[in-house]
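In the previous chapter we treated chains in isolation. Here, by contrast, the input contains two separate entities that must be folded as one system, with a combined length of 706 residues.
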Amino acid sequence: MVDKNKSLNNIAVDINKVTKRYRIYHEKIPSLKNTILRGKRTTYEEFLALDDISFSIKYGETFGIIGPNGSGKSTLLKLISNIIRPNSGKINIDGTVSALLELGAGFHPDLTGRENIYINSAILGMRKREVDKRFDQIVRFSELEKFIDTPVKNYSSGMYMRLGFSIAINVNPDILLVDEVLAVGDQSFQAKCYKAIYDIMKRGKTIIIVSHDLETISDLCSRVAFLKEGKIVDLGNPIRVVSQYRAYVEELEKKRAGDQQKEERKKIFKTVIESNRKVVDGEDIEKLSRLDSEQTIKRFGSGDAMIADIRLLDENENKLDYCKYGDEVKIALDIKFNRKVESPIFGIRITDVKDNIVYGTNTRTNNLKTKVYNNSESLRVKFAFKVTLIGGNYHVTPAVGYKDSKTYCDWINNMLTINVLKNEKAEGIANLNSKITIEKIS
Amino acid sequence: MIANIRKLFSYRELIVSLTKKELKIKYRGSALGFFWSLLNPILTMLVYSFVFSIVLQVGTPEFAIFLICALLPFNFLSNSVNYGASSIIANSNLVNKIYFPREIIPLSIILANLFNFLLELAALFIVMGIMGYRFYIYLYLLPVVIFIQFFLVVGMTLLVSALNVFFRDLQHLITIIMMVWFFGTPIIYPLSMVPEKYQFIIKINPMTIYADYYRNIFYYVKYPEGAGFPSAMETLTAVGITLLLFFIGYFAFKKLEPRFAEEI
């Protein structure tokens, strides 16, 4: 009766409210000595790898799992393959499971390819008779005919993986778990791997794939789950879920790059200030410019006019590496025209590290008339102002726009970074430099 | 437990495969291969008989045979326990990545050692045959004793292999325990040499009884003055303790098994 129900529902894997916690020990290796001396186990913290997860996978489905590192993907596969047990919740599996969690796991280096094929197949649950039957097929697939009687310790890592993959896909389970093992060997071998996976799909087997290769995931899978911090963020249509994950990764990257930059910039200026040097020296400049180029610079525009250079200058037009509150400074743009442009608009935008716009201005809003500029003409546009910013880093985005003020010749995101030295008198972005008075009121 | 035995049976090919692997690895790369199994006990015999018969001048006639027929069974136990202790950790790549009943790992080590033990016994037969021992009189008892001892070996090996995952320094302690066990078993001395008041303690050790059986089967056939099988009571006690240790080892292993993958 139960079996009939199962086949009606066609559920191959059912995950029901599964929670998995790992213990992270403060000492790497627990020891008997410590246990006896302290009379208790070594101390540990718990890490929630999966938090109350529920979903099910149908027969014949190819199911993808994506998510950042540490989101619980591999834990999920290990739970499905019965390597670890959940702390709570239920996992029902209908059918035999084979897990490709690591290719060549259990290979012994001293044994030959042939011997390892038999042992590895047995570990993956294959009978000797079946291996005998498929032996040639496995060897042919791995393209290791010549080396099959060589100990695997003499194999290259590519050969090792190829053999591992060839064995694994010949196991023929009902449910196949694949963890990040499709990137094996050269391109022609990879193509073979994909074909093998497709064949398994065609045979109506259930496949669960964990991968960072989003192309593969959206190519192969009928449904995808996006895991984050042990929870399912989204589950369903591969295109939708993958694009959601992409957006998340981009956001994360941006933040990480920003944080790192901020830290390094801080370090450089700290050493400059501590050593009482007035100007940042050559080495530091190099570091800073490297930081600048690391940042994801977004540039767009027709290219009819190009911003060739941007600089921060003092009143006397000397180049500045940093400034402080109250300095009179100029931002200079060097612009080269590649084609005739009529009445362009020159502008800058200053943003803080969190991308808040601090200040933006251009020739149009200042009612400054610009002329017609011809091919190969060069200009220098200067924006002079008094620094009224609180200490910190600010990015400058210069742009050259057409007179319609909708399209651009050139726009370079965060082309220049200005460091304003810290002045502990205030916080925020704008230094309004308030005068504080105190008087009694009656 | 019955269900588990059935499960293990379905994994029999893996057990055979891993046992073969253990044996292959052991002899891979050595020119003499399996001959080491035969050479080893013979060389041990030579060394011990030099030390005990010539240097220490122990009165026991043909001391080498006296010693070896108790030493080989003990080596089966101590090799299994010593190698078995670290076996789960040594195979962490398997435990972490593939599911199969974990007892197969220590079991394959025990079986490889058993195979070795039988090979050594075969060598012993040849030597004893040449020396004129009529060891075949009680030979029918040998499979029974080995069978019972096998349970002791399995129980102890499962216990230490599981505990060692959680307490890594157990491995070192095991070496010491096995040494104490070695001297607490009448191997280099006859049971009759142990003072009466200590005999009780020594006889609680099931290996004492089994060693006595082995010695009666092989050695005392030629020197019947020391002969005499352990009493029924002593034998039953030894079997009882063996089964107790077997179940303790088995259930401890099964209880701890689900956490192996996380701990290593």
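Chain B touches chain A at residues 13-14, 16-18, 20-21, 24-25, 28-29, 91, 93-100, 166-170, 173, 258, 261-263 (CB under 8 Å). Residues 2-263 of chain B form one domain. Compare these points with the single-chain example from earlier in the chapter.
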